[in-house]
Amino acid sequence: MRAYNNEFRYGLFLAPMSGITDSPMRILCRGYGAELAFTEMISATGLVRSTKNTMKLLNRPEGDKPLIAQIFTSEPQDAGLSAKILQDNGFDGIDINMGCPVKKVVSKGAGAALMRDQKRAVEIVEAVLSRVTIPVSVKLRAGWDSSSITAVSLAKRCAHAGVNAIIIHPRTRSEMFGSPPRWELISSIKHEVDIPVIASGNIRSVKEVEHVKSLGADAYMIGRASVGRPWIFRELRGGPAAGPIERKELLLRHLDMLCSYYGRQRGILRMRKFLSAYVKGLPRASAFRQDANRINEPGQLESLIERFDWGDGEV
Ligand SMILES: Cc1cc2nc3c(=O)[nH]c(=O)nc-3n(C[C@H](O)[C@H](O)[C@H](O)COP(=O)(O)O)c2cc1C
Predict the structure, then answer these.
(1) Cα–Cα distance between 80 and 123 in angstroms, integer?
(2) Domains of the chain, first to last
(3) Does the pTM of the predicted model rise above 0.85?
(4) Distance of CA 301 from the midpoint of ligand 1 (Å)
(5) Which of 72, 194, 280, 310 has the most CB atoms at less than 10 Å from its CB?
(6) Which amino acids are annotated catalytic?
């Protein structure tokens, strides 16, 4: 399939996940076959004001490509200005977040709040499109709540405005991350637009890929299933899961990458987000988690990982 000016053989993409999909995570997933990655969501306003924390989200090494920058905002002007900054910084495309359900974001009219303010959503899209020449997509939810399913009409309006792809996580804002995805929305959107439609939500196996493909999805985003399991991309290409030695080495490598990227202190704190996922399902996981979360020194964590009983790696 073709999207974001690139050709993709499998259409397997790493989903944007705030606090998770930093450059080290993206590089690990690319190594296992993620063909495209997205940044964590970036505040357009923070970018326009060049705040320190926002600017840090732009750091990445050369191999971290192709990479789409995702912005969130309720302000068309900030959207346009930030998109231009991202284009000048060498990103391969811009995605506009219309799905974040978090109170801090929706209370300001951004993220999923745009699902019920289509006029504002389209103004944001138009402002971005007027400022950049790189591809632009929108990441939608199903709608705000079950009485307001707006994904199809908003997808249509965004496509008409000129976006290059629609990403759909077919749950409403109220459904957060738990309820079954409303997959039928993929077919409905596909019916209305002639640009790629990318599916996100609960895609963890070849069976789920095949299912959303049968509904018309052109590409597939993997989110939570990749946390502590970056080899999911290899599995979705028909390859094996990681065995115990590979898992251990991967965890050590992840720790090393985070410490190089953030520095030892922040690196080890960031690692805590992943530790339980790496050992999930293994017999001594809970004791490992408790011990690991008390450690503040990378060398000590490394030896704990080395000593851990990785069993036969079946999880
Ligand atoms: C911790 C976490 C952070 C997320 N952050 C973002 C984000 O920054 N931008 C975004 O569009 N979606 C974000 N999402 C939503 C995911 O991209 C994805 O659409 C959702 O998790 C469903 O897919 P999954 O079942 O494969 O995880 C986040 C999800 C999680 C769990």
Answers:
(1) 10
(2) 2-236 (3.20.20.70), 244-307 (1.10.1200.80)
(3) yes
(4) 28
(5) 72
(6) 100
